[in-house]
Amino acid sequence: MSGPSDQPDVREEVSRLRQRAGLTAAGLTGGLAAAAVAALGVLALATGGGAAAPAPGPAPCNGHPELCDRRLDEVAMVTSHNSMSVARTPGWFNAHHYNPIEDQLDAGVRGLLIDTWLGQETTRNGFGGTRLVQTDLSGTSREALVAEIGEAAVAAAERLSGRILYGESVDTPKLYLCHGLCELGATDAVEEFRRIRQWLDDHPDQVVVIVIQDEATIDQDVAAIEGAGLDERAWPERLTPDSPLPTLRQMIDAGKTAVIMHESAGNAGPAWYQSAYSITQETPYLFRDVAAISSPASCVPNRGPGDAKLFLLNHWLDEQPVRAGQADAVNRSEVLLPRARLCRSERGRFPNLVAVNFVELRDAALVVDELNGIVEEPVVTGG
At what angle do helices 333-347 and 364-372 cross, to 10 degrees? Predict the structure, then answer.
């Protein structure tokens, strides 16, 4: 199990990413930051402090004014794979990131790939002093789970739970964010959706895309999202390959700053719960090493139709258990940027969701800025 104890301190890197995303430590962005500047100017005049501060420039969209009038399919976003699986949240075995989703968003992540499962909290102890959550595994076999999360992870869950009842459902199900097995880590879905909703409320000029691998039903997902009020921030119109995607400015002006999608087929459920692989196409995601993830074969079509406008670039190594060292190797700009450019050329699609493990490590934010054509102003120091 990899975690913060065996890796370098990433706090300085997260602070740098937060600044690149246009967020202050207090979470001021866009209109909030403009209001703060105006208030400081009034205070200066009232106290004889000189002229008011100049009027602020254009409000940023996802940290950069130049992104405001671009459509969703013209914007690249740092995206975390299995966003809910984090080392610094108690109870997660085989974590994919260091920091919780709120901290990921603060550091500039704008795409979240999460999984929903039904589970039931038990009286047994799980990892990190948490209560063990038994997964609803109706219709699931041990072999399918091993293929998804590896033999070591399944064996660890079996040691904790005593036995796993494959193919059986739990008695009183509740929606959790889990990866493969809730015994290996589970976050209450409604509580997490509520935190995301609050973050969007606090950052009204930030647009986020959420893709849910829905192992629960669409109705169960919808109930949890609506229970958290997150649906009130969802883009309300059904998106199709033929429909124009909104610009960031349109989404921000409407107060609908989240695109929420599910992986299961079809357009069941409300219009705001988009069918991911109707409007998104992706790359493969099973790569064993840097050579495989850098090859032209890494760009071949996987799920989603060829006319889908959004493009998901899956960029992580498929080794179990997950290790931060794997992400350190492939999140480097010298690996990630050439692959993004290669797949853009091969597929004729701009990489929108650049999805990585251990999003805190290395250069995903720098690569996304490069894809977006964002150039930082030079930092001037000294007198």
Answer: 40
